[in-house]
Amino acid sequence: MSDPLLDSLNPEQRAAVTLPHESALILAGAGSGKTRVLTTRIAWLIQTGRVSPHGILAVTFTNKAAKEMMTRIAAMLPINTRGMWVGTFHGLANRLLRTHWREAGLPQSFQILDAQDQLSAVKRLLKSLNIDTEKYEPKKVQGYINGHKEAGRRARDADAHDEYSMQLAELYEAYDAQCQREGVADFPELLLRAYELLYRNEPLRQHYQTRFRHILIDEFQDTNALQYRWLKLFAGRDTALFAVGDDDQSIYAFRGANTGNMLEFEREFAHGRVIKLEQNYRSHGNILTAANALIERNLHRLGKSLWTADGEGEPIRVFEAFNDQDEASFVVDEVKALNREGTALSDMALLYRSNAQSRVLEHALFTAGVAYRVYGGLRFFERQEIKHALAYLRLLTHPEDDGAFLRVVNFPTRGVGARTVEQLADAAAHAGASLWQAACTASGKVAAFARLIEGIKQATAGLTLAETIDHVIEASGLADHYRADKDGADRLENLNELVNAAALFSEEAEDDTLDAFLSHAALEAGEHQAEPGRDALQLMTVHAAKGLEFHAVFITGLEEGLFPHEQSAHDERGLEEERRLMYVAITRARRRLYLSHAQSRMLHGQVRYGFASRFLAELPDAVLLPLNRRTATRDTPAPPVPRAAPAGHGTGYRIGQCVAHARFGTGIIIDFEGRGPDARVQVKFGDAGTKWLALAYAKLSPA
DNA sequence: CATATTCTCTTTTTT
DNA sequence: AGAGAATATG
Predict the structure, then answer these.
(1) Is the CB of A625 under 7 A from strand B?
(2) Is residue A59 helix, strand or coil?
(3) Is A218 noted as a catalytic residue in this protein?
(4) Which of A64, A388, A429, A611 stands 20 to 30 A from A470 (CA)?
(5) Where are the alpha helices (DSSP H) in A22-62?
(6) Positive or negative CA dihedral for A264, A265, A270, A275?
(7) Any strand B atom closer than 7 Å to A353 CB
(8) For this structure, is A40 an active site residue?
(9) What is the 3-state secondary structure (H, E, C) of A402-435?
(10) pTM here?
(11) Is the dihedral of CA A152, A157, A160, A161 positive or negative?
(12) pLDDT tens digits for A406-426?
């Protein structure tokens, strides 16, 4: 029997899509059609009448993935998908809490704190309790709180044995109390609250457990402890869980993702029903050979090996540059050549381990006139001018929000300084009231601010969302402030863009209240720099590249200390995660892959000398094509000789030079100090690390 | 109270 | 190098 949904699937994919009503784990390698299987499964379940859209819960990690899933399902099924719950963990938790806010113990219009907001809330708490921020760093406290929430632990469940941990637990408790008082919830709180809601509320739990007959989870390897418990709670006796993931692509362990959930899931739910999707439809053979060889070095994995029906394809090109600039110019040349041969710029990606590395690359691209687009960095709803405008809006709908109050009480400056705010905070604390309430009974400039907000509230009653925001931007003085600022043009434009975003939101969303828009802003921070339509080279970190694919991929900065990053290279777990990251990077490429490293590069304002990444050595030589120094032609500049590094005051050594030591082996001179008999050099050795050596004693020889 | 200056800290990041 | 925060100065 032929079914158009299933015809184009391979046997494993088809088996996964048509699994009976039981839980199962799908181990889906990179490029094996993971999303396709997930969406086809949903379409198949509905089309064959096994479940109505109402009985489906599909969870992803990013908004992008959720949208993609919706689009694909809609393309396969000509029915309305309204009743289906498809979204991110946080989006779905938010939906649940908005519906059952009373049972969850939240105010109806509770606000969501993003990571920035949360950090300032923590700082504010520490300040109000007179806590030494040297000893209890705000970031650490935030990490502590989130760590516990993500493990499903409240302050009372935190183990506190010594003074330090007891204090942390108390801070956690006080922080939650502050949030409750102000009617706000941070990201992990959304999940924990939703979890507790269902956990404690039997009828509600039963309702959802009966309703969702199929729960499907994407990128299962990225779930943390709380998310896993969350899923278990939603699953009733008759619910089938369909988890799709790839342990080899787990790159978020550093923020709590637990690959162990996959093993746990297999034991608890799948009972051995595991389907491996190993046929890769993306990359040519050599690229997969390299990826497989690399990932096999990891000991902690479920085991899986990609293969392709395509040919070997081209070898992987490896380039060693003198320095970061040389590397960048190599990339530019290759990109231009590929582009001339017909590859669209947008089908090529430039990947790096950390955002800071993009600068040099951008500079070279800009100079060469190559269009490019950088992903990452500040996103729309995270910009300060946008956050200011949103804070005014939050104050309108939810005056108890002290965080919002503090953000804008003196922005634009209206003569309310730190001193005044402190007094206000004292008054509020005494009266057990919010800053807003205290402000309403105050006099002078604070009272003027309160009148301003009241005035805006009245003036915007009955206006549409976009009109309201427009009014707020003008009446608050934000617009004037940025108009007066000579560098404010961009910010002003962004504020206009916010009004447009609101208008668009009103058109698309079912619920276009101010509260809904604010949730939207917090949960979906917005595209990075939406500038579609233009053909541009894609620049991003390896993390940001997960889930994407390109004709040609450049992985740059393959040096020890950078990739693998030195922070992670010390322990086995960190190193395995770095290796998975490299695996993700390699498997982004369809046809052509470039790996480059530089002998030296500017880092934190100074030149650093590094060795080639160990990951390069872990790839089989047979698939690599070392590109020797480009043959200098008339129009290429002479190869940059390691720049006239400060000579070692006539000692015959210079920075950047390779030397050999009887005991430590070979290394590179990275610093120089003193002169004459006291002269010392700092040498970075391959195995022995970095050492200061006195030239008078150490027997060094040029290598 | 607002603005200029110095100091500090730099992995990855979604929600 | 460069941003953001803490701190000194007008």
Answers:
(1) no
(2) strand
(3) yes
(4) A64
(5) 34-47
(6) negative
(7) yes
(8) no
(9) HHHHHHHCCCCCCCCCHHHHHHHHHHHHHHCCCH
(10) 0.83
(11) negative
(12) 888 888 888 887 778 888 888
